[in-house]
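Two entries, shown back to back:
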Amino acid sequence: MSENGDIWLQASSSTTQRIEQDNVGQVVLIDRNDGSSNVELDTSTGMITVANEADYLVVAAPQVGRLNSGNVANFRCWIRVNGVNVSDSNVLLNLESVNTKDVIVCQVLVHLSKGDSVEVMMATDNSAAAVGIEALQPTPDEPMVPAIIFSLEARYANK
C-alpha cells in the first residue's frame, strides 16, 4: 500500500469502437471509471495516470467482434506506457466470421513511476471487416457487456 492507501482502478467502456486503419495502433477509449483509489482516468481519452511508484498488475479484457463478412481478420490488443509499447503484451484473436465474438485477456506486470501513463491499444489487419470492440446490451434486465473491462492494481508499492 502507498502512504495514501490502496492503489487501484476498475474501468470500462460503454462505446463500441471500430478500428479505422489496417496495421495501425489505435487507442482504446475507456470512458467509465467504475471505481478507483489513487489512480486517475481521463474518460475523454482513455489515458490512465498513476500517482505512486509501484509494480502494477494491468489487465485489459476487450469484447471483440466484427460487422462485415469477407476474409479472416485478426484483432490485436496490447498495453502502452508513456507512449511506448510494453514488450510481450500483445494478444491476438482471429475473427473468421461476423458471428464470432469473444473476450480476450491482455495482462502485464509492469513497474510504473509516479505520473506514468497507461493506454490500451488495438489493431487489425482487416479494417474493411469493421473489426473492433463492442459494447452490447443483451436484455433490459441484464448489465451491459462493456466494450472493455480494465483493471489496474499496485503490487508492492515503494515509499
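entry 2 starts here
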Amino acid sequence: MIPHVIEAKHIEGHRVWLRFDDGACGEVDLSDELDGLVFQPLKDLKFFRQLLIRYNTLSWENGADFAPEFLREKLVQQNIQAASATTYVQHASSPERARPTDSS
C-alpha cells in the first residue's frame, strides 16, 4: 500500500514534520535531497516553507514533490539512525563501562 502524507509542518531549515495515514510521524531532513532543476527553488528557505500537501504527498507550487514512499522510508531511516545514536551514547556513558573490573 502506498503511504499518504496527511499532515506536514515546516520545522526549521529543510526539516519537515510529517504524519502518514498509517499513524507514522516524525521529522525528515530534506537538505541533501534538493538536486536538480525542479528542486533548485527549494534551497531558498522562504520558498521551501511554502510546502503543501497535494496528491497525498509533500509538494510545492513549482511542481516539486517527493514520492510518499521515499518520504516514509526516509522517516524510518532517520528514526533508526537517531535511535542508534541515542543507544550508543547511553551505552558509552553507562556506569558499568566506567567502573574498573577486579581482575584478582
